[in-house]
Amino acid sequence: MKKLLDHKVGEPVDLFLFIKQSTKGVTQQGSPFMSLVLQDKSGDLEAKLWDTGEEQERLYPAAAIVRVGGEVHEYRGKNQLRIKSIRPAKADEGITMSDLVPSAEKSKEELMEELMQFFFEMKNPQIQRITRHLIKKHQEAFTMYPAATRNHHDYVSGLLDHVVSMLKLSKAVSDLYPTLNKDLLYSGVILHDIGKVIELSGPVAAHYTVEGNLLGHISIMVTEISKAADELDISGEEVMLLQHMVLSHHGKEEWGSPKRPMLPEAEMLHYIDNIDAKMNMLNRAMSKTEPGEFSERIFPLENRSFYKPTFE
Amino acid sequence: MKKLLDHKVGEPVDLFLFIKQSTKGVTQQGSPFMSLVLQDKSGDLEAKLWDTGEEQERLYPAAAIVRVGGEVHEYRGKNQLRIKSIRPAKADEGITMSDLVPSAEKSKEELMEELMQFFFEMKNPQIQRITRHLIKKHQEAFTMYPAATRNHHDYVSGLLDHVVSMLKLSKAVSDLYPTLNKDLLYSGVILHDIGKVIELSGPVAAHYTVEGNLLGHISIMVTEISKAADELDISGEEVMLLQHMVLSHHGKEEWGSPKRPMLPEAEMLHYIDNIDAKMNMLNRAMSKTEPGEFSERIFPLENRSFYKPTFE
Amino acid sequence: MKKLLDHKVGEPVDLFLFIKQSTKGVTQQGSPFMSLVLQDKSGDLEAKLWDTGEEQERLYPAAAIVRVGGEVHEYRGKNQLRIKSIRPAKADEGITMSDLVPSAEKSKEELMEELMQFFFEMKNPQIQRITRHLIKKHQEAFTMYPAATRNHHDYVSGLLDHVVSMLKLSKAVSDLYPTLNKDLLYSGVILHDIGKVIELSGPVAAHYTVEGNLLGHISIMVTEISKAADELDISGEEVMLLQHMVLSHHGKEEWGSPKRPMLPEAEMLHYIDNIDAKMNMLNRAMSKTEPGEFSERIFPLENRSFYKPTFE
Amino acid sequence: MKKLLDHKVGEPVDLFLFIKQSTKGVTQQGSPFMSLVLQDKSGDLEAKLWDTGEEQERLYPAAAIVRVGGEVHEYRGKNQLRIKSIRPAKADEGITMSDLVPSAEKSKEELMEELMQFFFEMKNPQIQRITRHLIKKHQEAFTMYPAATRNHHDYVSGLLDHVVSMLKLSKAVSDLYPTLNKDLLYSGVILHDIGKVIELSGPVAAHYTVEGNLLGHISIMVTEISKAADELDISGEEVMLLQHMVLSHHGKEEWGSPKRPMLPEAEMLHYIDNIDAKMNMLNRAMSKTEPGEFSERIFPLENRSFYKPTFE
Amino acid sequence: MKKLLDHKVGEPVDLFLFIKQSTKGVTQQGSPFMSLVLQDKSGDLEAKLWDTGEEQERLYPAAAIVRVGGEVHEYRGKNQLRIKSIRPAKADEGITMSDLVPSAEKSKEELMEELMQFFFEMKNPQIQRITRHLIKKHQEAFTMYPAATRNHHDYVSGLLDHVVSMLKLSKAVSDLYPTLNKDLLYSGVILHDIGKVIELSGPVAAHYTVEGNLLGHISIMVTEISKAADELDISGEEVMLLQHMVLSHHGKEEWGSPKRPMLPEAEMLHYIDNIDAKMNMLNRAMSKTEPGEFSERIFPLENRSFYKPTFE
Amino acid sequence: MKKLLDHKVGEPVDLFLFIKQSTKGVTQQGSPFMSLVLQDKSGDLEAKLWDTGEEQERLYPAAAIVRVGGEVHEYRGKNQLRIKSIRPAKADEGITMSDLVPSAEKSKEELMEELMQFFFEMKNPQIQRITRHLIKKHQEAFTMYPAATRNHHDYVSGLLDHVVSMLKLSKAVSDLYPTLNKDLLYSGVILHDIGKVIELSGPVAAHYTVEGNLLGHISIMVTEISKAADELDISGEEVMLLQHMVLSHHGKEEWGSPKRPMLPEAEMLHYIDNIDAKMNMLNRAMSKTEPGEFSERIFPLENRSFYKPTFE
Prior knowledge:
homohexamer
């Protein structure tokens, strides 16, 4: 069955959709409206409900499931959904959030299994114990959260998907550059963004928590590593080096890392994080682009458009 | 008695001095030499020992006390000491490090007493308990360390001196802007740089520790606050806000704060820290400048020179 | 009685208001409208009058007083006023501009009296004479003008209010750092922005004059100090140093100061100006923020939001 | 006769030279020396006098004339003069400063005559009167000073030479772009740097005065224009526009102009000033470069080297 | 007869116009509309057609000629055209594109004749042959294309107009600075932007081609010069230097020149290109500005407004 | 046998060495000396020859082989060689350049064979033909040149070594991100720096050619691709895309790429080039660092030092 993003401009839509975001607004002229972000597994579109009132606000909050009729149209170079009819899904229609919310292609169980394989290549017991401890402590959220609220891996289990992809890339570069310490690199990859499970509010419709705003996932995680070491009664340089891996993974002070990488593995973690995030965005943008055309602009890639060749 | 910095260019010097820094070097032509930073309470000067060998290296390490004869001369706009004679101080000459190393004008006991007065204006018990706990935990070092290895408050008890001066400024601005929360501001002032006791190697001849380099005093302290709260069994927003105060006190990401200030008190902490550090540098530079002249260039003030008026 | 900014979103409004700004516009579809900024002492809100014609333009120019019925609503994260009825105030309703235009909490007479007290701490007669001369020359405007057209101290007597607050802060820092020359610092504070009385068009509804645009308040004031010295037949370093205080008070070339501060007092003037302006903005923003929430974004504070703690 | 810069590396030198700069120094090893900048009309070279004492300091101050024997050698990519013999010139040898100090190719009288011709193309009496008044007031210095202490037009009458060259360029662009107002442009060119006669200490061996450091030639000149208008009893927009021409001629705040150009003529003044200064530097550098070689690096041209083609 | 830009706000319009750009859009509420840029020789205005459908899209594509009735109105500080009636021009009305599309004031034949005169001042046969060859190869487009899609010389024959104006400026500066090599400078001026005939899609309604986006006119032209030299069997330094002239004419890497100018002529080419482009924009903006007013903001001049004096 | 870089500070050296660079200099005091860069396969050290004359200049030019006795010492944090004896190698000592000049670990034949394997994974005949043509055209130099004059892969066959390493990384990322086009990516990797064979002067002791300075390897190669396509009679998008791959591989305009990457493969090429260069530098620096120490500062990694953990 045709999903939301499979519809071209002008095509009629009749689908169950998940309300990812719901915001009240008022037009310049003063009429109230609601701005919804509606999604199914194919992705999301913005939509407006005009002349809304208390009833609409009650019926269509974030995280509700609705049945929507309408049409795709284009507004300022981006597709939107024009709503012609909307109603809450009924209990007996049997649609659940997991039918609609996009998630990693593989299940979180598969991804976790892939992840756990990488421990077999690690040797340092301290690093392994801290890493396993922190995975376990946050397992529920770690396997469900997105890696970001938008731009890349912004879907259920996106964080885990991103981590597993980065681990594969880590293995490739460790093979090419054998001086890299796999314990540090793999553990750094696994831990680098776990702080997001505290920084963000949840696996879907995520926003920044107060703690996320005031401390940020990097500082949160540095403290978490310290706590883990205390609980496991581990001391030694490994603790500090893991903290540094997490601390420096944004690469520069102006990107939120209070220290720049000072370990070859930390430098490589920054590169790998960057490549995997950028490839995720590029893949998404290019999949929507026709041969001989330029993609939509990708903001985190300095707002560039990318060209799709006419040959294979 | 005339101290080191009281000597003008060309004046002979005959003093007991403390070796603040001792580095081996080799001239362009290949002869070994030693580069010393010699100090007494008036400040420090660089000096060279030429054609040195193993004996000199053994006799003149950092932290040794020596008797030096020589002359002040100027090299590239900065004064240096030309050594004509040097020998280790003898035990029976009775000179100790504390006779030579510059320190805050007030004793650490006086400064601590001044500091403790500020607790009387604080109301929030959680904030007070965490702050007192951390002062106590690091008291020995907190009362002895400099605030920085150079530029400002770089003397014994310099950190405590800086903190007390900032507390006085905090009180003045809190009186002028009564919406500021004194608990947060005072505690932020007290805690903001305690991480330096781990970042730096000691109260004199300080260099950066490995942990200081890889984590930095800001992240070290954020974790310390978390540990203090755990040990005191304190939870609640206060912990996170104190962490944020410390985290953001450099003001900008590019200056090492992973988050910019998001509390009015955090913004003010950044201003006060800046003003007190800059005034310390300005006072030092202007005290060496004659009326009608420009001071030496002050690097952290964008390398500016400051003018001393000819009138009072 | 409830003032304009005391109304929450959705609440009906029925008030006399002052038209701070009145601009004609045309919608995307080509219909004429008017964009008004309406204010009373509590602050101002934007409002639109739709489908306007010549009559409306005649009735509702800037500086008119009107009676408005309507409702507060939110548009793109900022509150606006939806006008349902509007008419000019009638003469016999007895409402005057001074009833509606926000001004400093203290009267200009009180503020001037506070300001004059600071002369008692000054010693240098040349500096005092020039300063008094310029206050007197521009007294009418100096006591009425805002310090800026928006952001901080943007109300009647805002400039004087800002200056008096800065003088108090100057006194506090002069006490803490006694090397600062009070004559230079106090006079610098008093004179630094007087050029605004030429840069801006008036005490209310102020815009930039041509001279303000082409020369700016800094260069205008540097010339004014020179003229004052000529008229008072004062020569000597004091004139040049006061010019430098004004010239450098924005702190950096890119912020409009053709020279950076080269006097400790000039450096401090820059800090004090900055702190007082920022605290004014922070106070305003935090007063509208609920505990546990973030404030609106404050553009001149790098567009940051500030958090209001849940505890006192 | 061969002048100083006509000597190649390795060639012996025996010349009367003018001491442009004389600075005492001390070597790393503590021996005193003097660093001289020696010049004749062909340009200048640095030279060292080793193991100097009071006698040398007395004999070889700045502005002395000396007879030097030695050799040109190259040090770190720049030519220097190695002094083998030096003595003060004797009165009866009849060498005067004007024999040795480089100056504009044309005499100041010729240059002034060329300059005065441009008034015939001007129409606005106010602009002409202010401009003539300021030329007259500072005529002595205006015709003698360099345009800068180094880099471009740094010779006697360099300022006037620069102005006349810029006037010719102004005429060319005014002919091409006839909308430009010649009164504003010519007057702006003439006045733009006159403030340098107060900013700098004199026509030779110039350094920055205290007033030059604290106020700068731009602000000095803005005040001068205001005074001229007062003395001539001229009011009207012309005064402000001339002030703006001078104020904005550095083009950007970060280059010392508190306002960017807001008149087409001010924009053009900035371009013309830039072109004439850069061409002066390029001509000097290329004249010392062989075909097929790159010039020395030119610091104000972003430290670039320029290539001299092998063909004419 | 009154042309499009001769109409003031509020004035009725009834004109034949050329559709420079035609874009489909959808309002926030979901209604389709078309956004047209309509022009005649006086310039262009934006206009909207509301509630459009397939017929309108067929009738009003880019490059169509239409008869439009409507009115000029102002929207956000820029004039627009409100369309009240529109229909395609009829064949028998005899209006052609060249009646409506703005072009250089002189004919392309006149401009080419002016351009060819400059060859008489050139001496180097290799440079001349390459330059003539490339003019001839691209003559059709070179004489018709604009110099840019907007901002400056964005009209038919705009590129040629820009080049001829630059040549005149080149002659003026070559006369003032006779060390400049006219062969290199004139040829650089002529060739510098010919790559635009491949970078852009055509002389009117131009957009960037794929090759223009991926390679840019600078790299395209560098290759063209190499091909020309091959075809003419010319080798020698001249080829490389012409490539460098083109390569470096944007002046800085961040402006798209992979190398900064390293020939005095290349430096001058950059200045001349800049001046001529900026004067073209300034003239256009000032011609629409009343005395005593500021112009509209000019984006490529750092968004500045320029003031038009009240006197001549 | 112990090689040059195997010697610690203080250890005596007696080795045949290759003169990589030979520069004449003069000390501050005017004595001539020579500055040599001496190397064997382990790397290079700087050394000085004091009080040199014509004979020394004749005996010790760049590319000579010498026998040197001396000692390693440290100068400003970098090791140098103090020469105690030096003489030219004798013919009958049988030492050749290839015994001394560092080169890739594998032979150029092995490396070329590895490279050629990657063609088996490519499918597009046009891309393959252009790539093979250009390898063949420049094969001699391509297999011998370094990838840079310093910093990374600055040894014989360094360019080829770098390319092969990048190809392996390309394969790994292509496997992980299968949307990447291997033809474009592999060919881009192979061609991206071939222009260096024209930009640099030779495989050893390389400096920039005039063409290298004025055009740069990027623009040189873009033209080379165009010529190859002409010679092979290939047209079509592939040519332009290969040009874009080369053109954009520095990633940003300010780093010398006139266009930023606009193909996913071009983006990846930039990442891979960066990673392989940085890992080469990191490996070299870390190999000289003891556990528990920081490496020397690495300039192209923003002058950072990297830490070597104390555990394996």
